[in-house]
Amino acid sequence: MTYKLGVLGGMGTLASLVFYEKLYKNTRAKKDQDHIDAVILNHASLPDRTREILEKRGEFLKEVREDFEIFNSIGVDYIAITCNTSHYFLEEMKKMTRAEIINMPLEALKEAAKRGKDITFFGTLGSIEGRVYKRYENELGLKINYPDKKDQDTLMDIIYRVKSDGKRHFSEFDKLLEKYGKDTTVITGCTELSVLDYKDAVDAMDVLVGVCLRKCGKL
Predict the structure, then answer these.
(1) What is the distance between the alpha carbons of residues 114 and 117, in angstroms, rounded to a whole number?
(2) CATH classification at residue 124
(3) What does the pLDDT read at residue 200?
(4) What CA–CA distances, in Å, run from 118 to 35, 36, 69, 216?
(5) Do 56 and 111 sit in the same domain of this protein?
(6) Are 33 and 93 in a shared domain?
(7) Where are the alpha helices (DSSP H) in 27-170?
(8) Which domain holds residue 162?
(9) Which pLDDT tens digit goes with each residue over 129-177?
């Protein structure tokens, strides 16, 4: 048995569920056998990625290594990680596996660049401080902006409320999209934000789903 896709999830669990639902809904399939052979590891107990980055704890890579060992033993071709912030550790994670880890931030930025060069990033403070998206700014010829501190605090509150109670709509988020989407392209670079009901933004999870389908020959 050959599994094409490994999904490293649990960051958070609802976001991973939504990712797989989107993968299912966007696959051109008329029967079970048309879908992607995939393995999903919902490693919910992995350390909080933002705290790992801000506090330099060094625990995440130790714990995630076992997941890549499982993927290696199964022999998946591609790995999708349903957490933007965890891509701070991308280069270290690449060394743990023979499979191709799909670079969600880079792919999302490539998609956003089609709308314009001026980007506003919505995501975690860990992704901002860790330059998870900013590191590709020069390579892609983009200008990546961040919300002001008050609005970033609001985003962080929304992200952790999605994790805690699974709420899918926030009026505060709608206002932030309207505010920053007037003059720039907003990219939602946190998979908790990807579960919300909204439009008019480039969503990193949606882009990841599309790349997975294309690489697995299901688009």
Answers:
(1) 8
(2) 3.40.50.1860
(3) 87
(4) 37, 35, 39, 31
(5) no
(6) yes
(7) 49-55, 60-74, 90-94, 104-113, 125-129, 137-140, 149-165
(8) 105-204
(9) 999 999 999 999 999 999 999 999 999 999 999 999 998 889 999 999 9
